[in-house]
Structures
1.
Amino acid sequence: MSKPVLVLGGGPAGLSAAHALAGIGRKVLLVDKEDRLGGAPIHSGYAKLVPSGEWAKDAIGAMVDRVTGREPIEVRTSTTVKAFEGAPGAFTVTLADDSRHEVDSAILCTGFTHFDSVNKPEWGFGTFPDVVTTTQVEQMISSGQGVRCPSDGRRPKRVAILLCVGSRDRQIGREWCSKVCCTVSCNLAMEIREELPDCHVYIYYMDIRTYGLHEDAYYWRSQEEFKVKYIKARIAEVTSDGHKLIVKGEDTLVKRPITIPFDLVVHAIGMDPNVDNLLLASIFDVKLEKHGHIERASVYSAMGATSRPGIFVAGAATGPETIDDSIAQGQAAAMAALAQVQGAPVAAE
Ligand SMILES: Cc1cc2nc3c(=O)[nH]c(=O)nc-3n(C[C@H](O)[C@H](O)[C@H](O)COP(=O)(O)OP(=O)(O)OC[C@H]3O[C@@H](n4cnc5c(N)ncnc54)[C@H](O)[C@@H]3O)c2cc1C
Ligand code: SF4
């Protein structure tokens, strides 16, 4: 009987890799440091997902259900990997509780870390309670409490969503575009307008990157159907006059300073490399790319290969990714892991 494949991380990518392997009868050791599976959409309480419109707890919850209690998959939560040694087909993994397992290969599906907005203090987070993040607003919606100002629980009448917080910002060492936050923010703006039809919602942007097929469904629909207003701007600071939050900046279309009051300001936070990546890179002896994500050995010839044979990577561990792409990468990495164990060449050629 073959050894299991280690899948580290039980978010969308890891759940998909585990499900694909179990589907063809392969044993899987699925390990997650949190006390439950589901990854960011579950741990951070996302509301309705882009682009399916399904609630995260239902869509990702169903992915969790189909790997839970399934015989070839051993799930270990609230633990992580302490050591990893050996060669493809004969690795030994030691978990944090010192239990040792023989595994054929490993797929790293360890995802990302949300940007911490305290690293952008001039935009008011951590200073004013009514400056929040997209994940906080998602939690307000998914918990059923609805969109409120944390300071006093009132319903906001004016909301500003600031894009690219912790992305495309060289001053704070984050040069990448986080890929999903434009579309997620357009969607969130529509959800706020749906819940609070009297609330004015403004989106401050550098560029709008509702890539692919999302342009009309999110960008144009939010303006034409939901009357969300867009301001192309450079934001200088978020302050308060004692009653309202004040967003100050420059309207870069008309090249004039703008100062607008709001009740609630939302940071559309980006996707940082997982804070564990340096440790993971040393335990698994894999390379990181220059921003700190796990490096893929090849873009085309070996989906999911890392710099070390027998160790694969999928999903947002490689850089900002959507859920559907993470799922596809999880399946591709599962296939590559299987192919390698069966002797097929998967290294970059
Ligand atoms: C605000 C926001 C909203 C978003 N909304 C959407 C959306 O609507 N639609 C969409 O397509 N995408 C959305 N995304 C992107 C989405 O979150 C990612 O595409 C998705 O979570 C990536 O899945 P993953 O499995 O690769 O990583 P993750 O979801 O990050 O899962 C990684 C898993 O690995 C575990 N892990 C991490 N480190 C370790 C370790 N050292 N040891 C053990 N386990 C570990 C974690 O606990 C976690 O369970 C959003 C992103 C943000 C920031
Ligand atoms: S997706 Fe949009 S909000 Fe997110 S980093 Fe890219 S441009 Fe900025």
Note: Residues 8-14, 31-34, 39-41, 46, 49-50, 80, 109-112, 114, 134-135, 180, 184, 269, 271, 274, 276, 280, 315-317, 321-324, 326 surround flavin-adenine dinucleotide (ligand 1) (CB under 6 Å).
2.
Amino acid sequence: MANQDYPINEIISLEACSSCSLCADVCPAVLATGDGKLSGFYRLHLLKKLQRSRSGLWAKLFKTARMTEEELAQFGETVFKCTLCGNCQEVCPVGIRLNDIWVSLRQDLVHASAYPKKVDMIGQNIAESHNVFDEDNEERADWVDDMPDAPEDGLIRDQAEVVYFTGCVSAYFPMAQQIPIALARIFQAAEVDFTLLGEEEWCCGFPLLGAGLREMTAEVIEHNMAAVRKKGASTIVFACPSCYQMWKEHYPREFEIFHFTEYAYHLVQNGRVPLKKLPMTVTYHDPCDLGRNAKVYDKPRQLIRSLPGVKLVEMARNREKCACCGGGGNLEMIDKELSATIARDKIEEALATGAQTVVTACQQCVRTMNTYVKRNKIQLDVLDITQLIERALIDPDDGKGTE
Ligand code: SF4
Ligand code: SF4
């Protein structure tokens, strides 16, 4: 364990904390449990104590006792009960980049062996199988077989202008596989020249950051870059905000990258997606990695509003203030119950809008919210934005125009 896990700007910014505790007031983990030890405020306080106790001079001058192993282990438990939603960072009045610190802290605690051992699985699975679920990576594009009129090439072409980077959850999790199917159908309707990477797509590395395994990301980054290069593509499109965020922040800038909502907005604006009327009232949930973390708020809303017949109503907390669904930061794996309690709060807010459907732009949000809704038999549809557009697609065989 070492303070070297933190870049110098992170160490310096710790001192800027004014102890206002605003970050605790918006933390979904604190709101769901009432436990202040899960707050950013408390976490920073302990982190400063931990760092000072490691400095020989500081310890001598101020008699800072080292944390016991038990204290460190308890700290590790609380640090991983966080969805990395960025709500705390958004409200911090002194602008501390808390999300970066949380990721460095996880790495520090992994080095110190003070972390929930469940996260070991993430590193093992990605190292051995190249996906987070330890599935056969050769089956990464098997969802294509479930498409109506599945193309013979399995959507894997030698060369294409656009690569659709699917991500592990959409590739393997049955509840999420409707998302890549919907995206592929929209791209087919718009005649986009695109390909999948198939088994050459490896996990983007984002779950490794959340697992405190930043060192392992270099290999997956190098592999995925080479796989895209081989296709001769200039552009990569993601329906997964976490893959998108990972490529945006941690991969070399060699390709144009877009989240689906950005790319599809232009397709719709240019009249390339044939749409029929869809009389629906929906509300939109901003995925943390797309909204707060990548600042994409307008395009999803403009896209929804451009669908004929669809009415958008906002939740009480939206855009920068949007409440997390409970699915980020590997929390579902670490503490299922906490993840579900955060999802409950989210669903209650969505229901209060009176909308019949909550639309989002992330397979993990769909998964978390849908699991809660189905388990509790709640009358609310949960759809990814790809699925909403797919519903509005004019079937080439029915010949209907926009009403
Ligand atoms: S990132 Fe979200 S869950 Fe984690 S401490 Fe901040 S507000 Fe709480
Ligand atoms: S909001 Fe920022 S300044 Fe206030 S307690 Fe949290 S980290 Fe410190």
Note: The radius of gyration is 22 Å.
3.
Amino acid sequence: MWPKSFDYIRVNSVEEAITQLNKHEDAKLLAGGHSLLPAMKLRLAEPALLVDIAPLGLTQVSDRGHGWSIGAMATHAHIAANANGALAQAAAGIGDQQVRNFGTIGGNIAHADPASDPPAVLVALGAKIYIRGSGGERNVAAEDFFIDLFTTDLLSDEIITSIYIPRKEGHTNAYAKMAHPASRYALVGVAVDICTQEGHCREVRIGVTGATTHAVRASGAEAVLQGAEINDGNIAQACEAIQADIADQLLGDAAYPEDYRQAMAGVFLGRAIRAATA
Ligand SMILES: Cc1cc2nc3c(=O)[nH]c(=O)nc-3n(C[C@H](O)[C@H](O)[C@H](O)COP(=O)(O)OP(=O)(O)OC[C@H]3O[C@@H](n4cnc5c(N)ncnc54)[C@H](O)[C@@H]3O)c2cc1C
């Protein structure tokens, strides 16, 4: 399959990228190319111009003390090797080695594939997405960034520059996913960030991907755990609650239908809670 013909340009600054996006209505940024190029070959995307942002750098995975700064162009392999907790676990489980070596976190979240792993983790960790465009710089909470199937809060002339993950004292986190046997995309993925004291949950955030049209927070399951003892009974209740949380946004196909993924969200929430509190 061949894509429709297109022009190609490399840019050396974020400003230049924004200028190109402004000048050409049909321009698309090119990062790792692992979602955009397959979509072009299938003619699902037909950009007239590809703006290659590889020269921009933006590859940092830096512990700033008060939190982590992850550059938009950081590859999954780089994140798996240099971050920790749920984010590193999710990155390490993406696709295969080639996908992890090329795919970037910025491209991943801009594409907003419902089966992507990082979105659930960023929602659970309370991450902020830093964005620049002709209107200046802004940041958006991850839970407000993912809007629907392949749809985000990003405007057509905007570029994601980095992601900030705040450090929260006493918190631990984990990501558990049921991977598609061929692509490794998440059929269901659940991320949990939790703070416990004497066996009780003081604070918790839960993000879900794969089973839903876009990454969402499971606030009903969070409410069950909040203040409760972390024991088998309360975990089982949270696993019931998450199924109600996602009931309106379920996604499925012939092989892995909606009700199956909904039930699996409960199973994988249990695994993520146990891993985060182990
Ligand atoms: C075989 C295969 C298996 C995969 N398995 C998984 C998996 O298990 N889990 C998973 O999460 N993902 C998986 N992926 C997706 C992969 O992880 C990439 O993250 C994803 O393809 C997008 O990243 P990219 O850097 O390749 O972006 P590109 O394909 O270059 O771009 C994707 C989109 O994002 C836009 N974009 C890119 N960078 C930016 C930016 N900085 N700011 C704004 N917009 C931007 C582009 O214009 C384009 O619209 C898989 C992909 C393949 C091909």
Note: The longest strand covers residues 186-197.
